[in-house]
Structure formats: C-alpha cells, structure tokens
Design goal:
61% helix, 3-stranded antiparallel sheet, elongated, mainly alpha, Arc Repressor Mutant, subunit A, homodimer, DNA-binding, 3 strands, 124 residues
Chain lengths: 124, 124
DNA sequence: TCCATAATTCCATTAGTATGGAACTATGGA
DNA sequence: TCCATAGTTCCATACTAATGGAATTATGGA
C-alpha cells in the first residue's frame, strides 16, 4: 500500500487521535497534586518502590484516599504493583514515564522544532 | 547561612511542594483531550500560532467552549496571546513547555536515575 | 456613527472527580 | 481456626470541571 491517499491519512488521523487520548489521560493522572507527590515519592524510592502504608504515612494521606489515587495511576500504567506477603509494593513505571517524556519531547523538539533539545538535556 | 539544619530543610520542603502544585496544574491543563489537541495544533503551527476561529474550525470545537480551554491553558502559561486587529493569535509557550519537559526529565533521569537519558533523546 | 467580524463572558446544565469513614477481603503467623 | 496486619472496595458527600447557546465586548472599516 502506498504511504499516501485518503485511506492512509484517515488511518494516520485516527492513530494520532488515539495517541492524544492516551497521553491526555496520563497527563490527567499526573495532574493532581496528591498523585504527582506520589509519583515523585515513588521515583525517589526507585527501583524498590514503597508499600502503601509507608506512602500513606509519608504523605499523610488516608489509606482509602490513597488507594483511589494509586488505582488511577495504575489504570494509566504509571505505576506497577507486586505483592510480598501482606504488603503491596508500588513502583513508578519507567516504561510509561519514558513514553510520556518521549511524547512531549517529540512534540516540542522533534516534530515541530519549537524547543532546542539542548535546553532540556545536557548530554556530553 | 549553612545549607543544612531544620530551617533550611523546611524551606526546601516548601519549595518542593510549590513546585509540585505548579507542575500538577500544568499537567492537569494538558490532561484533557481537547486541550492536548489544541496544544499539538499550536505546536504544529509554531511559531506563528493560530487565531481562535481557525482553531475552532480545525478542531470542530464551538467558540465558547474553545475559549474556556484557551483560558485554562493561558492561566498555566502554556500558551501566549497577541492581538492583531480583531484577531487573537495563540501560540504554544515554549518557555513553559521547556520547564515541564525539564521537570519530567529531572525527576526521571537526573534526580532519580530511573530512566536513561538516551532513551528519550538521541543527541549526537 | 453604524455595522460586521472576532472572541470572550455569562449562565445554566450536566458530568466527572476527590475525599474519607466504615465494611470488607487477602495474606500469613500463632 | 483465629487473629492481626495490609489494602481495597463500598458508599455518601462535596466539589470542580466541561459544555455550549445567548448576550456582551473589542476592534476596525465604510
């Protein structure tokens, strides 16, 4: 199939729109102060992660409220969970954060060249 | 003043918490499908930007709804506006996007080394 | 001054999100 | 089996955000 034509561009539009929905949902998950605090805490505890009780006491968030927030982050794959006995260990999901960062980077620096890469990263 | 002690760490905590609030608000602004579509469109029209009427017809969003979204993006400094006659030209704000990208990058790659910089950027 | 165009603001409606106590479920140890 | 600990789910309440038609404001041209 030729990489052009009406069918092709319709497919591309659809793909782009699904992408927009997906990343908007991820941004929304990070777009609440308690959840962004959770993400920062989990990143600082990376790669071991933390158990719910410790997150709760560290951030002073009641466990049921916290559970709702963790659920939302989990739905967007921003965190991963593993069980160890009675404890659940939550970790930040590098794969998803990488995708999100990659998306923003592509939009700003690659696709539209609105921002110079050097302004974000200093890589020698 | 010594860069340690209770007062210093209290200040640092406060600063970190304000930062969290600020970036959470920016994520929230990008965390709605219509607004993320607006940002992508403005980035693709960068640096000229677009007038409201054209954004409205391109994205098929009624002007009053669009106006609300633009207002929210403007409140988080994610877009800039300039008037030319009766038209308002909206542009993506590179400064803010750069800050946002820088924040995410710092959290994931620098501060916590959860993600390898090379996985985001390919800089030669 | 009057009119047309551009965009915002007003307003009401609807929908979705956040919060946290209480009840429940899961797991492992005594 | 019974208990303690860890977390989730249920549920009700309160808030906040999204939407879009109608009215309003801003700007410039005839």
């Amino acid at each position: 199939m030729k990489p052009e034509g009406a069918a092709w561009s319709a497919m591309k539009r659809k793909q782009e729109s699904e992408e927009t929905t997906r990343f908007a949902d991820m941004f929304a998950a990070m777009g609440a102060e308690p959840r962004l605090r959770i993400m920062r805490l989990l990143l600082s505890a990376h790669p071991e992660g933390m158990i719910v009780g410790d997150i709760s006491s560290e951030l002073e968030i009641p466990s049921s409220t916290l559970s709702h927030h963790l659920d939302k982050l989990k739905n967007e794959d921003l965190v991963n969970v593993r069980r160890e006995g009675t404890c659940l260990w939550y970790t930040a999901s590098c794969d998803s954060l990488q995708e999100l960062l990659g998306f923003l980077y592509a939009e700003c620096c690659t696709r539209n060249k609105a921002i110079e890469p050097e302004k974000i990263v200093c890589c020698r």
